Amino acid sequence: MNEKVALVTGASRGIGLAISKVLLELGYIVYGICRYPNQSEFQNQNFHFIECDLSNPKQIQKLIDSFPNRDRLHVIVNNAGFAQFGPIEELSPEKMIEMVQVNLTAPILITNGFTRYLKQNEGHIFFIGSVSGNLVSPWGNVYGSLKAGLHHFSRSLFDELRKYLVKVHLLVPDITKTNFYEDLNIEPDSDTSSYLLPEQIATVVKQILLDESGMLVHETHISPQLFKIKRKKFLK
Asked: InterPro entries, alphabetically (predicted)?
């Protein structure tokens, strides 16, 4: 009954699932937050899905109020996110609002709701940012702006919480081969040197959690050796 607890958003697949597996390997009880838990086939006795629509602040508050074993919460991984790219006038207002809620509002609300427990446990907060948050990206300006906001929130939170021995980490991955690109018109190149794998991002999380040197690297940029990306070919 003394196991440490971790919360991971977007845990049903991709980077979130890879990080969840690493946390399980390290002995954590992991609660994976996602909208459609039945879409994942992964099972482990210490891995528990919690269904939550992170675009809905009322559901986030319900998650915070009912979260199990919160007194043992040591790690939060704010990973969930999605993007729509295109000319600004062609983006759906509804999808833009959903992007704001999932990519920026949800991590802020979750951090607000659980930080007191991380202070008690001298825990870790991870934010999965994006290289898009550091670039000027035509057609990706909404997503990039939201990731830039997440980066700034993480940097400010680092200075706020370090005196309480809460460790705040911002991971900024470049092109990573996940289903993130399913609904986009671009995708990683076939060259394996041009993209990251979710397991590589998870390895960075593992290294951070195992480090007992007292040194804290707040911001970590993770890139493949090469930069290549390709546009999808759509059949008419």
From this structure: NAD(P)-bd_dom_sf, SDR, SDR_fam
